[in-house]
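Hi there,

I know you've been waiting on this one. I reran it after we fixed the sequence typo, so this is the corrected version. Both the input and the resulting structure follow.
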Amino acid sequence: MNIRDIPIVAIGPGSQPSESDGSELQYIDMPRGMSMYEPPSIPDPESVENLTGARAAMDWLQQTLDEWQPGKPALADISGLDEENRELVNQVLGEGEVAVKFTGDFVAQTQESVLTGVWRTFYFNDDGKVTHDLLEVAEAPFIARLGDLGRDRRPADVSGREAPPGAPNAPAILTEIADRVANREPGDETHVINLTLLPVSDEDLLFLDETLGKGPVDILARGYGRCIISATRVRDVWWVRYANSMAKLILNSIEITELPHVVEAAPEDVRDSGKRLAQLLEAYWTDD
């Protein structure tokens, strides 16, 4: 795996089947290209013994997972590893189901590993080259929580903006969003506006999209289908879309929360990752 390319799947206009009347839903652009995880190929034992940098990184990760407590993220900078050591880290960790991209004053991407709660984060310079390579242990990666950078406290003022023909319901939805955001306190329960259950038209969706704007964070969570989560320009407001394995949109909602829960790993799953890592490392190193 080339660490300079964090694979992320593309979801956007044209990726969903057309409606029966020939119209198409409008989507916020998503990051592109994500590969499926492949089991690691075990290197020659003698060569592994010489990869002390990778072993030090895995020792740190094992200890961190064993001692981890909810709400206390941990970071390790492994930017100094050479290509061989980094490749071994890549093989051990693999690729999990969640990918995050931050595009704002800087560019960063995170790929979940096969270990729940273990993340690989890369920061890039203006030339697209990796400047920092980090290991993270947390319920959710740091850059996913940066959605409020450059975002507004309230939705854009639409009092003087007339909704286009065919979008009669968008203004009422925007009013609800504005009220919830204005009165929200940190730690409040997530407020969900399920657009799938509302009589919204394509014009309504497009007007909502244009008014809420595009935030700096895009998240893709894969499982039996795909969950696409996009930060809007409005603080605490996320657009969440679920598609089934046939790439058909089955749930379209707006969530008002610090971070949608689907992104966060359960604490018990993070703790179990310590046991899984120990099992993975048995194939690489054995202490005499």
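Quick highlight: The two ends are 31 Å apart (CA to CA).

Best,
R. S.
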